[in-house]
Amino acid sequence: MRKISGNKLLVKALKEEGVEILFGYPGACTIDISDELYKQDDIKVVLPRHEQALVHAADAYARSTGKVGVCLVTSGPGATNLVTGIATANYDSVPLVCFTGQVSRPLIGNDAFQEVDIVGITRSICKWGVTVQNREDLGRIIKEAFHIARTGRPGPVVVDLPKDVMGELGSPEYPETVNIRGYKPNPGLHIGQLKRAMKMLNRAKKPLFLAGGGVNIAGANENFTKIVDITKIPVVTTIMGRGAIPTNHPLFIGNLGMHGAYAANEAVTECDLLFSIGTRFNDRITGKIHEFAPNAQIVHIDIDTSSISRNVHVDIPVVADALEATEKILEYAEEHDTTEWLAQIESWKAEHPLKMKEKPGLTPQKIIETINETFDKAIVVTDVGQHQMFTTQYLELDANKKLLTSGGLGTMGYGFPGAVGAQLGNPDTPVIMISGDGGMQMNIQEFATAVLQELPLILCVFNNTYLGMVRQWQKLFYGKRYSMTCLRAGKACEGKCGTEGCECPPYTPDFVKLAESYGAKGLRVFNPEDVQAAFEEAKKNTKTPTLIEFIIDPEDLVYPMVKPGGTLEELIMDC
Amino acid sequence: MNNSTMQKRWISLFVENQNGVLAKISGLFSGKLYNLESLTVGTTEDPTVSRMTIATYSDDETFEQIKKQLNRMVEVIKVIDFTNSSICMKELLYVKVKKCTRHDKEELFQIAQSFQARIVDYGKDSLLLEFVHSATKNDAIIKLMKEEFQSIEVVRGGSVGIEAINMTQR
Questions:
Q1: Of A232, A434, A482, B3, which sits 20 to 30 A from A547 (CA to CA)?
Q2: pLDDT at A505
Q3: What is the C-alpha to C-alpha distance for residues B146 and B131, in angstroms, rounded to an integer?
C-alpha cells in the first residue's frame, strides 16, 4: 500500500464525509493542507475575512443545510479566534468540525510561535476536542469527529493537527466504521415512558405543547404539526423552536419567555400539562424559575439526558430524538376536547395581541411584515439584540421559511457571516440578514467575502444609533443612564447623553457608502412607504449583496418584556 | 431546588486512559461550580482504561446533574454511583512526626499499634507512619497527631473504592 501524508489523508477524509464547502483561513501550520486543497476540485474553499466570521459562516451553513460545517484555521490566533463561534455552536447544538493547525510535536509546550493549547481552551465549550498525536490515529480521529459532531445532540468538535503529524507518511485508509465505547448518542426511545406521558396528556384539561430548537434540528416539524392537528392542543415555542409548526397555524400561540407573547406566557402559567420537546428550559424562557408553569405537570422529551430535570422539575422524562419521539407520539395521538381552553387562549390573544404601538414612521414590525409579504421562501439570519427579538416576534415561518439565530449564547456578530454561510449552502434560496447597527459592525469585513462570492444577500440593518437592547434595560431599569450604549458618543460628550453644548456627531460609518466601497449595493430607508420598494430593488440585484439601512427610532422598545428575574405572569406591556 | 440534604457522595468513573481526560473531568467540576472533595485516578487491568474515585459534597439534584454531565462526556465509559452500594474504600495516609523525644517515640509505637499503622521509616528524632483507613478515620488520626506532637508533616492519597463482592457470590 502506498503511504500518503496526513495532509492528503485529511483531504481524502473530507471528500468521503461528503464535505462540499470548507471555510478556511490559512497560516504557517496549515499551509500544507491548503496546498492539498488547491490540488482538488470537489471541495469548495471559502475564505472569510476573520476566523470568527469563518466559524459563524460554517455554523449557519450547517444549520441551514443539516450537514456538518467544516472549518480549517491555523494555530495560535487562528484557533483562538474560533472560540466564540465554537461556544455559539455548542449552545445551539450545531454540528461543526473545526480543524486547527498546531505547531510540531517537539515544539508543543515551548511557547512556540503561534502555539496555543486550543483543546484546553475549548474543553468546556465543545462536544469533543482532541490533539492528534500520532499519524496512525489521524483517520480514525477524523471519522470519530464527524460522527460525534452530527449524532445525538449535535455539537462542535475540535481536531488539533500538529504540523509534523500531518507531514508524516502513513496509511491512506480512511475507516468506514466508528466505535467509541463511551459514546452512546441515541439510547433509543423507552416506549413505556412515552405511553405514560401520553396517558398524562389524555387526562389533562389544559394541555400545552412547548417546542424547542430540538424539533427543528431533528426535522420533526412535519410530525409535530400533524400531532397538533390531531390532538387540537395549542403550541408555544422557544425562539429556537419557532417554526416547529407554521406560525400561521391556528393552534400556534406564540413564543414564550422574556419577550414572548402575552397569550403564550399566560398559557404556560395556566396550563395543567406542559408537554415539551427539545428545549433545555433556559432562564430566558422560564423567567423566575420557581413560579414557572406553577399549575402544570411537565413532560420533557430531549435527546440530552443532562438537559432533563436540570432547570425545572420534570414529572415524566423521556430521553429520545425528537423525530423518533414524534413518530411514536403520532401512533398514540388522539383528539382532545380543548374548546374551552382554546377559548381562554383566544381571549388572552385579544386582550394583548402581539403588536407594536401604532405610530407613524418606520418600525421594526412594519419592516418584518414586509418581509413576510414579499418572500414566499427565505432563510432569515439575525444578529443579537432588539432586532433579533422583533424578528422572533413578527417573522412568519413555515416549511419554506427558516430562521437562524444565535439563541443560546447570544453572539453579536453572528448575523452577517451567518448569512454568508447560509447563502453558500442554499444558493437558490433568498437569504435575508436582519442586524442592528452594533452587531453589523462586529463582522462587517464579510462584505468582501459576500461580494467576491457573488452572494445576493439582502442585508437589513436596523439603525437606531444605539446598542438598543442594553439601552432598553437602561431606559426601563437604570434611570435612563445610557452608559456605553450610544454609538455616536465620542470625545465631545464622553458618552454622557445630554452633555451641554454638545451636538451629536453624524453616524459613522455611512453604511451605504461602506457597502458601495466593497462593490455591494446600498440603500437607505426612512419611511414605511419605501420599505417594499427597497426589497423589490434588492431582489433585482442578483450578483452582489444589497444593504438596506433602515433608520429607526431608538425609543422603539421590545414589548412585552419579562423583567429580568421576574415571573412570566408579570409582563411589562408598554410604557 | 435545594430542598434535599447536602451530603458527601461517591462516584466511581471508568474513563479512557488518554491525556486531557483528567483535565476535562476536573474542569467540569470547576466550570459548573460543583464541589470536588477528592479525586483519585489510576489505570486498571486494561491499560487503555483509567478508573477514578470521586467524592463530592452535593444535594440530590446537583448530584444527579453531575452524573449526567459525566455520562455525556465522550471519554467517560461508565459512571457508577456508590451512594447506595456496599463498597470497600480506603485511603493511604503518611504522617511524618518530627522533633520526637524518646517519650514521643514510645507513644507513636502505641498509636501505630492501636491504629494498625506501619512504621515505615525511622530517624534520630523522627518517625514515618503509614495508615490505610477510611478518609474519616484518617481525618481523626491527623487531628490527634496534630494535638499530640509539635511538628508533623502529612500527605494523603485520596480514597479509592471498589464495590464489595455481591452477597450471592460470597
A1: A482
A2: 86
A3: 15
Inform me whether the C-beta atom of residue A120 falls under 8 Å from chain B C-beta atoms: yes
Residues of A with a known catalytic role: 51, 113-114, 163, 469
Does the domain at A191-351 match CATH 3.40.50.1220? Answer given as: yes
CA distance to partner chain B, nearest, from residue A166 (Å): 20
Distance from CA of B38 to the nearest CA of A (A): 21
- B128-160 pLDDT tens trace: 999 999 999 999 999 999 999 999 999 999 999
Q: Do B28 and A119 touch (CB under 8 A)?
A: no
Report the phi/psi class of residue A173: left, alpha or beta, with left for phi > 0 and alpha for psi in -120 to 50. Answer: beta
Instruction: For the domain made up of A364-465+507-559, give the CATH fold.
Output: Rossmann fold (3.40.50)
Query: B28–A124: do the CB atoms touch at under 8 Å?
Result: yes
Q: Which residues of chain A have pLDDT under 70?
A: 495, 498-500, 575
**Whole-complex ipTM:** 0.90
| Cβ-based contacts of A128 with chain B (< 8 Å) | 74
Q: Give the nearest partner residue to A305 out of B1, B16, B71, using CB atoms.
A: B71
| Domain ranges in chain B with CATH number 3.30.70.260 | 7-85
Architecture label for domain A4-170: 3-Layer(aba) Sandwich (3.40)
* Chain A CB within 8 Å of residue B64 CB: yes
Residues A399-424: tens digit of each pLDDT: 999 999 999 999 999 999 999 999 99
Among A192, A182, A118, A184, CA closest to A153: A184
Compute the distance between CA of residue B12 and CA of residue B160 in angstroms, rounded to an integer.
Answer: 9
- CATH 3.40.50.1980 at B88-163, yes or no: no
Biggest CA-to-CA distance, chain A: 80
